[in-house]
Predict the 3D structure of the following.
Amino acid sequence: MPEEEDILKQPPTEEESADGIVQDSSVSPSEAKTPDMEVHHHPDLHHKRKNFREYFLEFLMIFLAVTMGFFAETIREGISEHSRAKVFASSMIRDLQADTAQLQSYRSYFSYAANKLDTFMQLLEVAEPKDIPSGKLYWYGLFGGAHGSFVPNDATFQEMKSSGSLHFFEKKIETEVAKYDRLCRFLQSTEQANEGLYTELRKCRALFFEFRYLEDANNIYHITRISFNQATIDSFMRSNPPLLNYDKVLFNQYVELARSRFLRQYNIAYSDSLIHKASYLMNDLKKEYNLNNE
């Protein structure tokens, strides 16, 4: 009897091989083959660490981008503000030119009135009212009641102030504009403070000067302002119109009220300062914004 070991070592015959295949027919041909193994590749989550130089370069690039954007926006805003400031400057120069013309007329009027009032007081210092030609008293006494007001052309300033646009100007110019406006307010406040004196003076003057002759003197003044004619003034002073009263006390009271208005001549001093400051400010605006043709 052959040994079991020899039987196992003998290869199967063709019949046996066929039978084995038939017997194992439940296994499909595809299953009979050795299946391919699917390989899954997982990403490498362990990145290489950046060194300090790479981090610094990234930071530097971001910083430069933000900085350049900021500078670009600042430059754009600066150009826009300068352009708007130039428009405001041109408008303010026109306002200052109008102010200067008004102030020169204002100053001339009050200087003229102050000189005539000085002559009126000199006449009363050396003679009694009844001994002075009444035409002279009417003419020179008229100017104790000189009255005028300065109204600044400040539309541009007020617009810039309300809109917060004054900072468009260079700091030096902004400061000078504020100083000019403050001086305008001082002159206006002085005028307001004198309103009470002006009212009292006119009441006092009405006690010895007849209105119609004062009106004649006033008309002559306005005519001669346009076309000066000393002969017309001299003719009025020789006309000797009547007075309502020759009381020296009343004349003295009138002179004191007039002196209180003109003693320190704030009107003239402030108008001189404003004319000078307006000229200085216009020159700065023209130079800064290239407006020499304004």
User: Anything to note?
Assistant: Residues 58-289 form one domain.
